[in-house]
Description:
- The protein is of the alpha+beta class.
- It has one domain.
- It contains two helices and six strands.
- It has helices at residues 10-60, 91-94; strands spanning 97-98, 101-111, 116-126, 136-140, 145-148, 158-159.
- The chain has a six-stranded antiparallel beta sheet.
- The longest helix has 51 residues, at 10-60.
- The chain starts with 9 loop residues before the first helix and ends with a strand.
Amino acid sequence: MRRDHRGFSLIELLIVVAIILIIAAIAIPNFIRSRIAANQASAIQSIRQITTAEVSYSSTFGPGFSTTLSALGPTAAGQGPTSTAAGLLDEVLASGYKSGYSFLYAPTHFDPASNQWYGYDVNGDPSAPGRTGDMHYFADQSGVIHGNATNQASSTDIAVGN
Length: 162
């Protein structure tokens, strides 16, 4: 009896698996680094959007800035912009989380005479440092974005994007 053997030998399959593992070992770290870089670029852009939204908020609703990040968020269906739903940010960013970063907004410099906030701080921090991003970002009413690689950023850190 003669058998016709077709298919791959065990050695051929092992060689193919080894080649795939080598390619994966090279590609996965590069993919992770590019994802972190994309998240960090998105975080900088998100902080720019927040600072632009605050300037628009101040010129639309009188002097001063918003009291919360969600106040810059979308308006209710069929409603116009208000000081508590200005329609200046998308709902994702207004929620305080986007692209692996958490954004913490705090109004500063309260003037009791006018009942207005004349400053704000916004921090963008990776939700999982080392996995979603390596840099921490900060901006205030000056519009300058600062970065720090190890701790939460502040106005004393080096400016980024210049």
